[in-house]
Amino acid sequence: MATDVKVPTLGESITEATLGQWLKKPGEAVKADEPIASLETDKVSVEVPAPAAGVLSEQVVSEGETVQVGAIIARIEAGATAVTSATPAVEDRTSVGKAEAAAPPEPAAAPIETEGDPKALSPSVRRAVLEHGVDPTKIKGTGKDGRLTKDDVLAAARTTPKPAAPAAEAPMPPAVAPAVISEGRKEERVRMTRLRQTVASRLKEAQNSAAILTTFNDVDMTAVIEARNKYKDLFEKKHGVRLGFMGFFVKAACMALRDIPAVNASIEGDEIVYHDYVDVSVAVSAPNGLVVPVIRDAQTLSVAEIEKTIGDFGARAKAGTLKLDEMKGGTFTISNGGVFGSLMSTPIINPPQSGVLGLHRIEERPVVRDGQIVARPMMYLALSYDHRLIDGREAVTFLVALKNAIEDPTRLLIDL
Fold first, then answer.
1. Which DSSP letter does residue 111 get?
2. How do the domains of the chain map onto residue ranges?
3. How confident is the model at residue 112 (pLDDT cuts 50, 70, 90)?
4. Do domains 2-102 and 118-190 have the same CATH topology?
5. Is residue 4 among the annotated active site residues?
6. Which residue did the predictor score with more confidence, 104 or 411?
């Protein structure tokens, strides 16, 4: 008896997704609740589990197709056993032509893909393989179930010389359409992922609807760096997580948001909604781009709890296991472009939020202290905000409060 595999409920307001990758092929055995496909929504990737044990008998849709919630994407023959090339599947048909009956039967099951088979790679990973000309069969995957990630390919590309054969001879992903302009000059067209489409739409929506303004300040990181160097080993030993800078900035932001509640508010129609809690959205890297999970009630958490939460988000973002509920909401966003080397930026707010804090790289610069020019580790801070709700005075006051707390971390302990 065949069991239909349907697109599961993906969360509030999400009605469709893109079938990103098949994890099982027709003829392969599957266990109940075993992932057989991955779906790309506008926020995260979601795995589709098998509703019953058996054999995947049919894939109804192809990779890259858009599917609606509740749509049938595959069928599983419950209770069946996987067929191999040595045991052809028996077709249940009442009439077979003589010529067809005389033809040798073909195996119903295709060869199982190996870990490094390019056909088993997601489009973004496959594209990276082609761009860098690496052999995916020689790369150890760090993703779920040993699958390759884009970071794995990039790491291998840095240490492996490119093969003599041109990368264009490798299998091309279905979303890529190469075009040769002239000898040595090529182009390719790549379909935007659903996540990238949503990011583009929301960022443009923010620019169209909000009066975005950015205010800058800089902060001397000397005190935080000294505290981190002094306690990082004890911190990791006690809490099982590394002490980073984000814990300090989230705590300092919570204190500043309490003093300047407009930066933590939002506009709904002709009303201003003030929040007595701080749900901080933090931008973390994922294989398909940045995602923004939310630290709930950050104002109640310790630095250790914040660091643990961010570390967990980062690990699960790379593995593609973040949940949709973890991406919803948020009253304020912190984005750390400094980890990529950014010196300064003007971040765009994440509607309906009214403020986003941009952190940047730390570098020694000459500053004046007590009449002397000295070198100090400095960081530029950028606060982009909706000027419809937040005045310049409030934005500057927020940044100054944040700067004071970072330059004198004792303020975080005594709530000053």
1. P
2. 2-102, 118-190, 195-414
3. very low
4. no
5. no
6. 411
CB 208 within 8 A of CB 357: no
DSSP 95: -
| Cα-only R_g, the chain | 26
Place of tokens 């750390």: 336
Candidates 132, 239, 275, 387; catalytic one: 387
For 111-256, where are the E strands, in sequence order? Answer: 176-182, 185-190, 212-220
N residues, the chain: 416
pLDDT at 104: 44
- Name the band, by pLDDT with cuts 50, 70 and 90, for residue 115: very low
Which is more confident, 55 or 102? 55
Percent of the chain with pLDDT over 70: 80
What's the pLDDT band for 97 if we cut at 50, 70, 90?
Answer: very low
DSSP 241: S
Band (168; pLDDT cuts 50, 70, 90): very low
**Backbone dihedral angles phi then psi of residue 220, each to the nearest 5 degrees:** -85, 115
Q: Per-residue pLDDT averaged across 194-207, rounded?
A: 79
Q: With residue 75 as reference, give the H or E element that holds it.
A: strand 72-78
| Integer Cα distance of 243 and 232 in angstroms | 6
322, 253 contact by CB (below 8 A) = no
Burial group, residue 214, by CB count within 10 angstroms (0-12, 13-18, 19+): middle
Q: For 105-129, what is the mean pLDDT?
A: 51
Phi, psi torsion values for 195, nearest 5 degrees: -60, -45
The whole-angstrom separation of Cα 305 and Cα 298 is 9
Helical ranges in 135-212 per DSSP H: 150-159, 194-209
**Of 33, 135, 391, 408, catalytic:** 391
Contacts of residue 78, Cβ cutoff 8 Å, sequence gap at least 6: 1, 2, 3, 52, 53, 54
- CATH 3.90.180.10 assigned to domain 2-102? The reply is no
* Topology (CATH) of 195-414: Chloramphenicol Acetyltransferase (3.30.559)
Going by C-alpha positions, the residue among 383, 365, 361, 384 that lies closest to residue 375 is 365
Provide the pLDDT confidence category of residue 42 given band limits of 50, 70 and 90. Answer: low
Is 391 one of the catalytic residues?
A: yes
Distance CA(115)–CA(117), nearest Å, equals: 6
Using CA atoms, how far residue 128 sits from 125, 145, 202, in Å, is 5, 20, 26
For 10-19, 168-177, 343-352, which range has the lowest pLDDT when averaged over its residues?
A: 168-177
Q: For domain 118-190, is the CATH number 3.60.90.10?
A: no
